[in-house]
């Protein structure tokens, strides 16, 4: 096996929040043996203590990687979000420290879409209330407020991967699908984009939210928007807890404006299964409350474990950053018999020419060079003959605006 600058057994990997065993197996198979695999998230101070000597961290939606955590994580080389959302990570802080962040943008899409479709049917039939009554010894046999899904209008807000997949499944059941998105998108099947969220809210029998957590989506559904919805309609949120003003939703359910809701994500979620779940929605009729399990199926979790661990391994072994959510994306070939230098720098004029000047001055021939930049950071990858690896690394360290350098297959330090 090719020699890396830091022995793989010394590369420390911390996996939190019960990431699937498939990730651990994948990392072990790739030679990464120094893995700590925890079932819970960690509070900020504990996390800060733990990340000091960690090279790779794997998290899910609960762990907050903020600027303070990044400041403490001096050896951190990459972050893997073993989920879709990356709002729990300060992506800017990661970028300016030269740390790429990866996620699994599709692996739990199907799980969320299936759950929402199931909830649509359950809510249209008033099942949560009828089931609760039956558990209590009641018998609510009635067709009142019970409807077929066929012919009803589903309004999807956020027509991305989940929204589009939900659209296909729902049409196959006979629902009419309309959607609103800030981007103009071609509809799947007969689904039609509407011009405004207001129009969607006024037309849909069931509204389902599939937007990311962004400043523009925070509290995008509140009293005012609910007032536009049809009398007796249904709201489903399996996106982020910050999207719906939960007290205002509770009021709308109590008043009968909305007939039902299914909520998987909350403004405040328990840190773990042992903590009490507190919500104004508790105890309301025809409301399905689930503990942020939209993506929690064994199938999705196994696939996510494989996908994200592969991205971390590829970056560690080879420098490839394709699909990173915050970092310039570079796809790199293998580099047999060459030393590879990964140079991450502020994207200001002149850095690349300075790198090339320094190498040329030292008589170091470049056998391959790859560059990608985004607004803030430049990522240049340089392959050099083995004989020059250490010398090139030393020379590049002194280039102004260098944020971080890694050397692969070199005798020099891994994390300089
Ligand atoms: N409950 C769960 O367990 C679970 C699982 C997976 C994903 N999620 C959440 O679902 C979100 C959506 O996932 P996805 O994979 O479909 O993401 P995506 O990025 O593929 O799609 C998001 C869509 O929302 C649109 N959008 C952004 N801002 C908008 C706005 N203001 N109004 C209307 N549309 C807007 C985007 O243009 C995009 O089409 C994720 O960001 C994540 O937060 C939750
Ligand atoms: O962003 C996601 O993929 C979902 O919110 C799922 O998050 P989880 O991995 O914490 O269940």
From TrEMBL:
GO terms for biological process: L-serine biosynthetic process. It holds the Pfam family ACT_AHAS_ss. CDD domains: ACT_3PGDH, PGDH_3. Residues 340-410 form the ACT domain. Pathway: Amino-acid biosynthesis; L-serine biosynthesis; L-serine from 3-phospho-D-glycerate: step 1/3. Keywords: NAD, Oxidoreductase. GO terms for molecular function: (S)-2-hydroxyglutarate dehydrogenase activity; NAD binding; phosphoglycerate dehydrogenase activity. It comes from the Bacteria. Catalyzes the reversible oxidation of 3-phospho-D-glycerate to 3-phosphonooxypyruvate, the first step of the phosphorylated L-serine biosynthesis pathway. Also catalyzes the reversible oxidation of 2-hydroxyglutarate to 2-oxoglutarate. Belongs to the D-isomer specific 2-hydroxyacid dehydrogenase family. This is D-3-phosphoglycerate dehydrogenase.
């Amino acid at each position: 096996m090719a020699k890396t600058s830091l022995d793989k057994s010394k590369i420390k990997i911390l996996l939190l929040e019960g990431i699937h065993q498939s990730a651990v197996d994948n990392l072990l198979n790739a030679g990464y043996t120094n893995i700590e695999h925890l079932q819970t998230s960690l509070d900020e101070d504990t996390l800060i203590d733990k990340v000091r000597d960690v090279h790779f961290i794997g998290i899910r939606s609960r762990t907050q990687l903020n600027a303070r955590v990044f400041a403490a994580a001096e050896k951190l080389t990459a972050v893997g979000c073993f989920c879709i959302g990356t709002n729990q990570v300060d992506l800017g802080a990661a970028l300016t420290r030269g740390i790429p962040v990866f996620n699994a943008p599709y692996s739990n899409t199907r799980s969320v879409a299936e759950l929402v479709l199931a909830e649509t049917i359950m809510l249209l039939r008033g099942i949560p209330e009828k089931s609760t009554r039956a558990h209590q010894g009641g018998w609510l046999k009635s067709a009142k407020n019970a409807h077929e899904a066929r012919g009803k209008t589903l309004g999807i807000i956020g027509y991305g991967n989940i929204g589009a997949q939900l659209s296909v499944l729902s049409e196959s059941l006979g629902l009419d699908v309309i959607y609103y998105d800030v981007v103009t998108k071609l509809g799947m099947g007969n689904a039609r984009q509407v011009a405004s969220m207001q129009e969607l809210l006024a037309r849909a029998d069931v509204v389902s939210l599939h937007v990311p957590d962004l400043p523009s989506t925070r509290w995008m559904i509140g009293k005012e928007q609910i007032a536009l919805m049809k009398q007796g309609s249904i709201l489903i949120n399996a996106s982020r807890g910050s999207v719906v003003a939960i007290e205002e939703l509770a009021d709308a359910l109590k008043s009968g404006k909305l007939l039902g809701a299914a909520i998987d994500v909350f403004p405040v979620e328990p840190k773990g299964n042992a903590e009490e779940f507190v919500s104004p929605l508790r105890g309301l009729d025809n409301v399905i409350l689930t503990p942020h399990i939209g993506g929690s199926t064994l199938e999705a979790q196994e696939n996510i474990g494989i996908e994200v661990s592969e991205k971390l391994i590829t970056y560690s072994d080879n420098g490839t950053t394709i699909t990173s959510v915050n970092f310039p994306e570079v796809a790199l070939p293998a580099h047999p018999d060459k030393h590879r230098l990964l140079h991450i720098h502020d994207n200001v004029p002149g850095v690349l020419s300075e790198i090339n000047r320094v190498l040329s001055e030292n008589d170091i021939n470049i056998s391959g060079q790859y560059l990608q930049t985004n607004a803030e950071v430049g990522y240049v990858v340089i392959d050099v003959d083995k004989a020059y690896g250490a010398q090139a690394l030393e020379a590049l360290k002194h280039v102004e605006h260098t944020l971080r350098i890694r050397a692969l297959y070199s005798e020099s330090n891994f994390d300089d």
